From TrEMBL:
Its cofactor is Zn(2+). Transmembrane segments: none annotated. This is MBL fold metallo-hydrolase. Keywords: Hydrolase, Metal-binding, Zinc. The lineage of its organism: Bacteria, Bacillati, Bacillota, Bacilli, Bacillales. InterPro entries: Alkyl/aryl-sulf_dimr_sf (IPR038536), Alkyl_sulf_dimr (IPR029228), Bact_Alkyl/Aryl-Sulfatase (IPR052195), Beta-lactamase_class-B_CS (IPR001018), Metallo-B-lactamas (IPR001279), RibonucZ/Hydroxyglut_hydro (IPR036866). It comes from Salicibibacter cibarius.
């Protein structure tokens, strides 16, 4: 560590310190308060006090963890005293071992323990679903750093004249912590804010909590923070931006919760809900809830799944025949595969690739190794991926298109 490095990091509040040659950057939220973004997947909070350093999250990997320790060492001689997990997702705990080696005491909500146990038990499943979601083969080592201190509702400690209030809430996970430092009105929100539509109803993941999510956002709003470091993306600076983000995200979740509950009470099917519920006009263009990660369709599915069972109201589906038998009966009735292919091509020409996919699946029922149909399906999925602005649709379609092409070889 040299003095020049220390001075370089002594920049003004609200300023961003870009690292040359990379998109890693330290954002300053207040004196001693930083949001380290793009040091790996997942932001890291750094709070430097005159009695030691508190780190909030650790990125997805040890490489990210090391980059964070390097950055801290450039700024201060103080030891790293605590590492707080905002929740137990891999992109927030992956670099924890590096911080632990530095002597950090790890604090989290109690449910993080159960999450780590579950990830270990379902390791192969998680490798598969995350490889699809993030479009690259995941390396999950299951070397979790379990917390030294856990809490249930709220946990407070002091260091160097700063109070660290850890508030538990549920949202994207059931083990979430928001860190608030009242002296400076600074908040580290974890994934309650990620610069995207909330990721509820993730296609392959366990239930998430839309009501508790907006309740926590409202709770943060009442604290009136002057800056928020989110779990991903750039910091929110100043009351105006903070309030706009919290209230837009809270409002959309509250609206969707109420709409879905109303539909469920009216006996609406999921299909009806998916096609009738939309985002209120005043929130549709909010920059804080773009549907780039979470999206309306998945949130509706998530809320419906949370409050109801799997039965869709049609007694035919209470104990259905195997789907292949159903498709085969329909195929026998049509009796002419050419007719289906012709119809598929018609839907493609009309731009309705989704309907075309359903028809291709019908043909694949009869001949699961029909290479031409796998190639055709792969081609359509590729096209669908290209026109989507949402991470899930893009990645699921791209990975599946590659799988279809392999089956076509
Ligand atoms: Zn995250």
């Amino acid at each position: 560590m040299n003095t020049n490095d220390k001075l370089q990091n002594n920049f003004a509040i609200g300023e961003v310190n870009w690292k040359p040659g990379s998109d890693s950057r330290l954002e300053k939220l207040g004196e001693g308060f930083y949001n380290a973004t793009n040091y790996g997947f997942g932001n890291v909070g750094i709070v430097i006090t005159n009695e030691g350093v508190v780190v909030i999250d650790s990125t997805i990997s040890r490489t990210g963890g090391k980059a964070i320790v390097d950055e801290i060492t450039k700024m201060t001689d103080q030891p790293i005293k605590y590492l707080i997990y905002t929740h137990g997702h891999g992109d927030h705990v992956g670099g924890a071992s590096v911080l632990k080696e530095q002597g950090a005491t790890v604090i989290s909500h109690r449910n993080v323990i159960e999450r780590f146990n579950r990830y270990t038990k379902l390791r192969d499943h998680h490798v598969a679903i995350n490889s699809m979601q993030f479009k690259r083969k995941q390396k999950i080592k299951n070397e979790y750093i379990y917390p030294d201190i856990v809490y249930d509702f709220e946990y407070t400690f002091e260091l160097g004249g700063k109070t660290f209030r850890l508030l538990h809430g549920k949202g994207e996970t059931d083990d979430a912590t928001v860190v608030y430092i009242p002296e400076d009105k600074i908040c580290y929100s974890g994934d309650f804010i990620v610069w995207s539509f909330p990721n509820i109803g993730n296609p392959n993941k366990v239930l998430r909590y839309e009501r508790e999510w907006y309740e926590m956002l409202d709770r943060i709003l009442k604290l009136n923070p002057k800056a928020i470091a989110p779990g991903h993306g750039r910091s929110l600076l100043g009351n105006e931006e903070v309030q706009a983000c919290l209230s837009d995200t809270s409002a959309v979740l509250k609206y969707l919760h109420e709409e879905c509950v109303m539909h469920i009470n009216q006996g609406s099917s999921l299909d009806k809900m998916l096609h009738e519920i939309s985002i209120p006009e005043e929130l549709a263009n909010s920059p804080y809830i773009k549907q780039s990660y979470g999206c309306l369709e998945f949130v509706i599915r998530g809320i419906h799944r949370r409050y109801t069972g799997w039965y869709d109201g049609n007694p035919t589906n209470l104990s259905p025949s195997p789907i292949n038998d159903v498709n085969q009966a329909i195929l026998d009735l049509i009796g002419n595969q050419e007719k289906i292919i012709e119809s598929t091509r018609y839907f493609v020409s009309e731009g309705n690739l989704q309907l075309a996919l359903h028809l291709i699946d019908l043909i694949l029922t009869e001949n699961p190794s029909d290479k031409e149909m796998h190639a055709f399906k792969g081609e359509l999925l590729e096209q669908m991926s290209e026109v989507s602005n949402n991470l899930f649709f893009r990645n699921f379609y791209t990975v599946s298109a590659n799988n279809e092409r392999e089956l076509a070889e």
